Amino acid sequence: MIYCYVPKVACTNWKRVMMVLTGRGKYSDPMGIPPNEAHIPSNLKTLNQYSIPEINHRLKSYLKFLFVREPFERLVSAYRNKFTRKYNTSFHKRFGTKIVRRQRKNATQEALHSGSDVKFEEFVGYLTDPSTQREEPFNEHWQTVYSLCHPCHIHYDLVGKYETLEEDSNYILWLAGVSDYLRFPTYAKSTRTTDEMTAEFFQNISSQQQMQLFELYKLDFLMFNYSTPSYLKME
C-alpha cells in the first residue's frame, strides 16, 4: 500500500497503522506507539527512497490512498495545534515570530522573540500575503492537499474522508486483507476542531481576506467535493 499522508487528517494514527503493518511483528497495537514516534521519518519508508523503476512499479501495482478533510476545518485545526499549544515552541519560533513581525503593529519585544501568541487573524494575514509563498512553500500542516499528494498525476485508488474516517479506514484495512487482526484506532477527541468552531474563527476575518483564503484552498474544495462554507462572507 502507498499512503500519502496529509497533516491534520488523522495522519498520526495512519502512520501508527502503517508501522504495525510494516514492523514485522514489532508492534501489534497502533495506540501503543507514542505519537512522536509515529512521526520519526526513519520509522517508515517513503517512495523517494527507491529507484525510479521501483517507484514506477509501486505506483502501478500498489493500492494508493489518501485522506482529506474540509479545507478550512483542517486549517483551523493546524492553527490551534501549532499556535495555541504551549509545547509547540519550534513552530512559535519558526513561524510565529515571522507572523508577528509582519502582521502586528507595535508588537512587543517579548512577542517578537517568542512568537507564542499568534492570533488567527494574523495567521490568515500571513497566508494571504503574496510574499509568503514567494519566500518558500507553505508548511505541510497548512499546505493544500493537491500540492502535497498530486492527485492529478497519481491515480489514487481511494480517497478517504475525515468525516467518515473510521468507516473508510477500516474498509482500506479490509481491502488490504488485515481487517481480521487490525482495526483503525478511534477515540472521540473532545478538543477536535468542528465546523461550528471553524465558523467562529472566521467571524473576525474580513470578507476580502475570506475571499483570498478561499482562492488559496479552492482546488481542495472542488477536487474533494466540499461545498463552500455557509459562514463565508463572499461579496
TrEMBL record:
EC numbers for this chain: 2.8.2.-
Record GO cellular component, one term: Golgi membrane
Enzyme class, spelled out: transferase
Keywords: Carbohydrate metabolism, Glycoprotein, Golgi apparatus, Membrane, Signal-anchor, Transferase, Transmembrane, Transmembrane helix
Transmembrane intervals: none
Biological processes per GO annotation: carbohydrate biosynthetic process; proteoglycan biosynthetic process
Cell compartments where the protein resides: Golgi apparatus membrane
InterPro entries: Carb_sulfotrans_8-10, Sulfotransferase
Recorded superkingdom: Eukaryota
Membrane topology: Single-pass type II membrane protein
GO MF term list: sulfotransferase activity
tRNA processing recorded as keyword: no
Family affiliation: Belongs to the sulfotransferase 2 family.
Listed name of the protein: Carbohydrate sulfotransferase
Organism of derivation: Polypterus senegalus
GN (gene name): Chst11
